Amino acid sequence: MKDSSYLKVIAIDGPAGSGKSTVARIVADRMNMIYLDTGAMYRAVTYYLIRIGFFESKSSDICSILNSLKLEFNDSKILLNGKDISEEIRSPRIDAEVSDIAKRKEVRAFLTEMQRKIAKRGNVVIEGRDIGTVVIPEAPLKVFLTASVKERARRRYLQLRSKGIETDIKKIEKEIRKRDEIDSTRKLAPLVKPRNAVEIDTTNLSVEEVVNMIIEMGKERFEKT
Ligand code: DC
Description:
The protein is α/β, with parallel strands linked by helices. It has helices at about 20-30, 40-50, 55, 60-65, 90-100, 105-120, 130-135, 150-160, 170-185, 205-225; strands at about 10-15, 35, 70-75, 75-80, 85, 125-130, 140-145, 200.
């Protein structure tokens, strides 16, 4: 049965560097919808765990740690216990650790529930790895974005360089392959194309082209529902 509370939701999934965040943000803006970056939520949890020394302490009580954490969104900023950490969560250290944190059952359950609550309010473009498969399989429009590993590494390299972070493109490519491997082979909510999702290979497409394709499909689907 169709869950009517998810009528106006666009779910966008795909691997790192497939263009999800850029595209989802613009689509949300042009369609006057809320943008929800679920990767930022996994990054925020990772940031918090690093900061409180979770890895060194080998503490296993991750649930109480999660419950002491308050995540909020304000425009395109993510706040952790009131502090804006939007920049900090994009560091290479977080890139390296986040996939392992995202494998954990408690972390996924905690964030999935939070994401559903936000999406229930409707009018949301929500992007991640498991949105169309696990979080909101009922979304009226599900999109799966892909791109070649080389192109994804090139995009990430340019993004880091624009922030003054110098790194090596080959190293990024290796990390992307490793992250793909962890994200797509994990037991819980692996990165796979959702059923009934529209797949778009963005390797040779401009951001504008991808955005327009999604907006067209969105309008068509929302008219029908
Ligand atoms: O999209 P991103 O690179 O910011 O995502 C960071 C990590 O979080 C990525 O390794 C996979 C994980 N993730 C996830 O498991 N499920 C989501 N819905 C979003 C991200």
